[in-house]
Specification:
5-stranded antiparallel sheet, globular, alpha+beta, 6 helices, single chain, 7-stranded antiparallel sheet, 317 residues, 20 strands
């Protein structure tokens, strides 16, 4: 008889399938299988009893290792790595023990939703193998803290440990400097892992003498590779190294986007009751100077119906 493991929601909100996440890294399960939640509450809860494996420096993602030995990534919103931790408060640190339902942190929903691509938040089971675990998603309209949303049937053991002795058996690259502004976080880790899984044999990434399995998203996140870090790829062939190095050299995160509600402030020599300031919606990022002009509202006489069909068409030309 197989062991059944229950996983509870990390957020309270509307439950979605992982395929509904508007990011192919999650929707196509490149990172792993799981679910997504559109939150209605700002607290982040532990989905299992275990240990906090890592808290991303941008505070938007937490990885928890269950007492049964598998890892769960909680990723609040999309493109939230660009917020650099603003809007998030995390109450736990790497290595902390947690019980299911414990509050791991919270986030400012208004602040994040104005600056993120979406608040839809994936919860992903990392590096699970089909022959070791069977995933059963329990679908609800809204999540409840006391109702599990995933049941895992454990079929075997996972072992993704990398022995340092493997290093000597592989070819390796020159040192590669990471230029991506947010380093290797969940999305680039998933892309690298997907490519590495195409290759036979061991594929490793080295940082400061520490090795991680490139086929494991968890292991890559555990290396905590940041912008400016120097890494080395170890693989069976030079062609494999070349393909992975090309991905590393071309990792690009979009810089933080200004929210649609950003207010553009213009200084003018024409005074008004608000102290020589006029307000509007910014059209693009940057600085502009010039004389502001106020356009008076024009009233149009609009006929809802007309028999002058050709004349009406000509007005659109």
């Amino acid at each position: 008889m197989y062991q059944t493991i229950k996983i509870f929601p990390p957020l309270l909100g509307a439950m979605l399938s992982i395929e509904q996440v508007p990011d192919i890294v999650f929707s196509e399960k490149i990172v792993g299988d799981g679910i997504a939640i559109d939150p209605l509450n700002n607290h982040i809860f532990a989905p299992v009893t275990g240990m906090v494996k890592s808290v991303h420096k941008a505070k938007h993602a937490i990885t928890v290792t269950s007492s049964d030995g598998f890892d769960i990534l909680i990723h609040i919103g999309l493109d939230t790595v660009n917020l650099d931790g603003n809007g998030f408060k995390i109450f736990v640190s790497d290595g902390d023990k947690v019980s299911v339902g414990d509050i791991l942190g919270e986030f400012d929903m208004d602040y994040v939703v104005q600056r993120a691509k979406t608040l839809i938040s994936p919860m992903v089971l990392l590096d699970l193998k089909p022959d070791e675990y069977k995933v059963n998603i329990l679908h609800y309209t809204f999540t409840q803290l006391d109702a599990p949303i995933i049941e895992l049937q454990k079929l075997g053991d996972i072992n993704i440990d990398v022995e340092k002795s493997q290093k000597n058996k592989l070819s390796y690259s020159e040192l590669i400097t990471i230029t991506n502004i947010h380093g290797i976080h969940a999305r680039p880790a998933a892309i690298l892992s997907a490519k590495a899984k195409e290759f036979n044999g061991d594929v490793l990434l080295e940082k400061n003498g520490k090795l991680a399995n490139l086929k494991s998203v968890v292991a890559l996140l555990g290396l905590a590779v940041n912008m400016g870090d120097k890494v080395r790829i170890h693989a069976q062939t030079l062609q494999q190294i070349k393909e992975l190095a090309n991905i590393l050299n071309n990792l690009v995160d979009e810089k933080e986007k200004l929210p649609h509600s950003t207010i553009a402030k213009m200084q003018s020599n024409v005074g008004n009751i608000d102290g020589n300031k006029y307000y509007g919606i910014s059209a693009s990022v940057g600085i502009a100077s010039g004389k502001p002009h106020i356009l008076n509202k024009i009233n149009f006489a609009i006929k809802e119906t007309s028999t002058e069909h050709e004349a009406q068409k000509n007005k659109f030309l």
